[in-house]
Design a protein that fits this description.
The complex is a heterodimer.
Chain A (H helix, E strand, L loop, with lengths): L2 H21 L4 H8 L1 E6 L2 E2 L3 E3 L5 E2 L1 H17 L5 E6 L5 H6 L5 E2 L7 H4 L3 E16 L14 E5 L3 H13 L4 E5 L2 H9 L5 E5 H10 L6 E4 L5 E8 L4 H16 L2 H10 L2 E2 L4 E2 L6 H8 L7
Chain B lengths: L20 H35 L3 H16 L2 H15 L2 H9 L2 H30 L3 H9 L4 H16 L1 H14 L11 H12 L2 H30 L11
Helix pairs in contact in B: 1-2, 1-5, 1-8, 1-9, 2-5, 3-4, 3-5, 5-7, 5-8, 6-7, 8-10, 9-10
Classes of the chains: A alpha/beta, B mainly alpha.
């Protein structure tokens, strides 16, 4: 946890890689052809999007999309033996790792935001989530207004954190907001009674609920405070690669193949525990599937 | 590397509109200082007491202090923090535990982190105080007792003054460590300096500016601590003892 020395080391490395990168790098596809390999960034516990199963294999809805993109690269570049390297990323390092060339493509649960577009490019969106509340069934909370004067937990570094702070200030709700470091810890705060509700992307709330000791005790409530589009992340100013990624995703979405993937990951038992998230598709998601685009919501 | 630098980010307003991002960093700095200095006070007081206890001729007292050191030095800091924050309220009687959990979250986080860091560092200070006391010639203690001083008086007037001076340099590094270790508080949600930098990255996606700024702030803290401790060493040194200037 010695952050100061860690960041110095990280920065040192980044300057070095930056110098190396500057010489080559005219497009990710060229790099892939030259090295005959691609590095995918993935998450470790974003259920059901990108996570490890019990044999430490990376699986999930987003990971499956990433592999479809790899297939398209193999086909288009005629690289049947393309080596696929997997590199785990966190919400903190995913963008720098794309920028410095460690990771070529990250498909996980990254929301497409205007700020992030300054640093990296987003593919056509692959999922849409709404930010809602997870609470105990008998808590008496059915929407955001019921939270006034109570303690809410959210995960640090998420859009939910921003939204709830803003809501609190605008509506003078006198909320007490706790930010936990990851979704598992946020749920722990909720479960131990430190907070009455957990605000987060609804799909991830369903994921936490399915992991709970007694899933039947919990419920997801509240009008979504925002919708967010998840996209795959790639380097900026790389139109050739972006076109390939975008067209692969668009084809999955318009052909309806993505619906099979949706059913597999969100409405059927999934590894590692055979949980079924039972997550109904939102109208916003259906709209995206009908009209693939790379806009932030 | 395809990175767009934007140093002006620190002066741009935050989404809630009540401050700039620089203001956030300074708020984080405030919490880091408050937490670290508070923990350091606890560590110095508790650590000195335990260090003395480790050297007294009483097996129970020295055993107690030794057990404390083993427990707090051998368990990882992060585990200790989670124990203070998550486990302790569950072990207390239910009404008390619930009262703690319902209190202001910021107070809970701060108190848990303060106790955790203070107790952890106390174990390390204790070992330094002990080694300082043990480095003195044995005759000093006997001389003190022979002069008719009680044992506490011997410690107070004969043993501790030179021992504490001897251990000033290693205490400086412990003092520096408190500031660096205080970053663990971010894991239970206390928005101190390192957490603010991560928050800055989350909000603005300007990772390098944020981390460089925070690195510089930590360096600044550490330089100030080093200069301060060097001044203390300078002012307290005794002629004829280790570290003293030639007379």
């Amino acid at each position: 946890m010695k952050l100061s020395s860690l960041s110095v080391a990280v920065l040192g490395c980044l300057f070095l890689t930056g110098a190396v990168q500057a010489q080559e790098s005219t497009g990710t596809l060229k790099k892939i052809t030259q090295t005959n390999s691609i590095t995918l960034g993935h998450r470790e516990s974003s259920i059901p999007f990108s996570y490890y199963d019990d044999q430490q294999r990376v699986i999930g809805y987003s990971q499956e999309i990433a592999l479809k993109i790899v297939d398209a690269i193999k086909r288009d570049l005629k690289l049947p033996d393309l080596a696929v390297k997997l590199n785990p990323v966190t919400s903190q390092n995913r963008i720098p790792l794309i920028q410095n060339g460690t990771v070529d493509l990250e498909c996980g649960s990254t929301s497409n935001t205007v700020e992030r577009q300054q640093q990296v490019a987003f593919s056509n969106s692959i999922f849409v989530v709404g930010t809602r509340l997870l609470t105990r069934k008998d808590s008496g909370i059915s929407d955001f207004a019921d939270l006034a004067g109570k303690t809410v937990v959210t995960t640090a570094g998420t859009t939910s954190e921003r939204l709830i702070r803003k809501l609190n200030e605008e509506k003078k709700m006198n909320l007490r907001i706790v930010s936990a470091k990851d979704h598992g810890e946020s749920f722990l705060m909720l479960e131990t009674g430190r907070a009455v509700a957990f605000m987060m992307d609804d799909a991830l709330l369903y994921g936490e609920m399915a992991k709970a000791k007694r899933p039947g005790d919990w419920t997801v409530v509240g009008t979504p405070q925002s919708f967010e589009a998840y996209g795959c992340v790639l380097r900026k100013d790389d139109p050739e690669f972006k076109k390939l990624v975008d067209s692969t995703i668009a084809e999955l979405e318009t052909s309806g193949e993505v619906l099979k993937m949706y059913d597999k990951w969100l409405r059927n038992p999934i590894p590692p525990k055979g949980l079924n998230l039972n997550f109904p598709p939102s109208p916003e998601l259906i709209k995206l599937y009908g009209n693939p685009n790379d806009q932030a919501l | 590397m395809s990175y767009s630098w934007h140093w002006g980010v620190f002066l741009s307003p935050t989404p809630s509109g009540d401050a700039t991002y620089l203001g956030w960093l300074l708020q984080g700095l405030e919490w880091t200082l408050l937490l670290s200095l508070g923990a350091w006070v606890i560590a110095l007081l508790l650590g000195s007491l335990l260090g003395v206890l480790r050297t007294v001729p009483n097996r129970w007292l020295s055993g107690l202090a030794a057990a404390y050191v083993e427990a707090f030095r051998n368990v990882p800091l992060l585990v200790q923090l989670f124990s203070w924050y998550f486990v302790l309220p569950e072990l207390l009687p239910r009404a008390l535990g619930d009262a703690i959990k319902q209190s202001d979250p910021l107070t809970q986080q701060f108190v848990a982190a303060l106790l955790c860091l203070g107790c952890f560092t106390a174990a390390r200070v204790c070992e330094q105080v002990r080694s300082g006391l043990n480095s003195l010639p044995r005759g000093q203690k006997n001389a003190g007792l022979a002069m008719g001083l009680t044992l506490p008086q011997t410690y107070r007037y004969v043993l501790l003054p030179p021992a504490m001076r001897i251990i000033l340099p290693p205490l400086t590094s412990e003092f520096l460590n408190v500031f660096k270790n205080s970053a663990v508080a971010s894991t239970i949600g206390l928005i101190e300096l390192s957490r603010q930098s991560q928050q800055l990255v989350d909000y603005t996606a300007q990772a390098y500016e944020a981390f460089i700024a925070v690195t510089l702030l930590y360096v600044l803290i550490n330089v100030l601590v080093m200069l301060g401790m060097r001044a203390v060493e300078h002012r307290t040194r005794l002629p004829g003892h280790s570290g003293a200037r030639d007379v």
